[in-house]
Write a structure and sequence with these properties.
Order of helices and strands: HHEHHEEHHHHEEHHHHEEH
Shape: rod-shaped
Largest sheet: 5 strands, antiparallel
Number of helices: 13
Distance between the termini: 25 Å
Helix content: 55-70%
Radius of gyration: 46 Å
Length: 369
């Protein structure tokens, strides 16, 4: 056992002697790796990982949309203890944030920013199809990463070699995305107004139709009633019944022609057309429904509410919170780390080379007797 240990100690000593004997070769190879890596790092374009935090609007910021969102009948109602306390609203913080994230993931606004501001694309040499493809890939290289356990905050991440240009590109792209969202929301409100106008017109037409039908029914019933009264009044005259008979009132002629002709006169005095509306069945309820439709103020309230929102101002509208001054850039890699790794690799390579050379030399030496 002791002889094996002694052999190991001799082998280790020999290895150290071999390495020490080749120290200048090892130093030269390691230095060469260090120098080459340092030159490569200096010539390599600097790459950065950029990031910008975004978050949804606060309740205080959403107060600017309160008048519009509280317009009755434009969104699902909110109840508390059985009482109506407001509307869900048509402009919501979560939806604005979600729309903005969708704009980022589509990448079209970033592609447009690069096309107009990036020198690379201003001097792009290729077909229009190749340009479109390259722009689409560039636009989709901006990634949104949501915060853990949050649907209303996160970070836009991207890579760049030019921090100053990236700030300009990101700011321009976000401006385009914001304007797209503003236009989409205004269009949605216009569609809502048209929907309400169509609904009001349809409901008003339906009520007017009910009124006309009710009037027609009344006129038909009046004509039939008048004809019946006139016939029985004639019979009563022939029978000499001027006044009602005490025995019975049916058939009608037993009421006497005076009473029957008086009822005919009353029916005639009611007039025709709209003058007869007060005598039409369900007229009061239908008239009230018509007045409610004609006095509907939702369209005016939407207009007034919209005028109070930031949507009308292309410079003041902001669907999310972000601060371009908070954009951060971190080196995508550390140059010193690359040089250190290259130096270690050079040293390892040099040691392996020394041992291989020493082994080959040992084989060529004649074996001792």
């Amino acid at each position: 056992m002791s002889s094996e240990q002694s052999g190991d100690e001799i082998d280790l000593i020999e290895m150290v002697e071999v390495l020490w004997g080749a120290k200048w070769l090892i130093t030269t190879i390691t230095s060469a790796f260090t120098a080459i890596s340092a030159i490569g790092v200096l010539l390599m374009p600097i790459s950065y990982d950029g990031s910008l935090r975004i978050s949804a609007l606060t309740n205080q910021q959403m107060a600017a949309y309160q008048t519009l969102n509280n317009t009755p009948g434009i969104s699902p109602p909110i109840y508390s203890d059985g009482s109506l306390i407001g509307q869900t609203g048509v402009i919501l913080s979560e939806e604005l944030f979600s729309n903005f994230v969708d704009q980022i993931r589509q990448g079209s606004s970033f592609a447009a920013a690069h096309e107009s501001l990036d020198p690379k694309f201003k001097t792009f040499k290729g077909t229009p199809a190749e340009l479109s493809q390259e722009l689409a890939l560039t636009g989709q290289s901006y990634i949104f990463n949501p915060d853990k356990n949050s649907d209303v905050s996160g970070t836009i991440n991207f890579k760049t070699h030019d921090r100053k240009l990236s700030v300009t590109l990101v700011e321009d792209a976000l401006g385009k995305a914001i304007e797209n969202i503003r236009i989409e929301n205004i269009a949605a409100i216009e569609n809502l107004k048209r929907s309400i106008m169509t609904s009001l017109a349809f409901e008003l037409e339906e009520v007017n139709m009910k009124l006309q039908n009710a009037l027609a029914n009344y006129e038909n019933e009046t004509i039939a009633r008048r004809a019946l009264l006139k016939e029985h009044a004639a019979i009563a005259r022939q029978l000499g019944y001027a006044d009602g008979q005490a025995i019975q009132q049916q058939p009608l002629y037993n009421r006497g022609y005076k009473a029957l002709e008086k009822e005919i006169s009353l029916l005639d005095s009611r007039g025709k057309g709209q003058a007869a509306f007060p005598y039409v069945r369900d007229y009061v309820a239908l008239a009230a429904e018509k007045r409610a439709l004609e006095s509907d103020k939702r369209l005016a309230q939407i207009e007034a509410g919209l005028a109070e929102t930031p949507l009308i101002d292309s410079n003041g509208f902001k669907p999310i919170n972000y601060n371009m001054n908070s954009i951060t850039f971190e080196p995508a890699f550390r140059k010193s780390l690359i040089v250190i790794l290259a130096t270690l690799m050079g040293g390892v390579f040099a040691v392996i080379l020394v041992f291989i050379r020493n082994g080959l030399a040992a084989r060529k030496r004649p074996a001792s007797s």
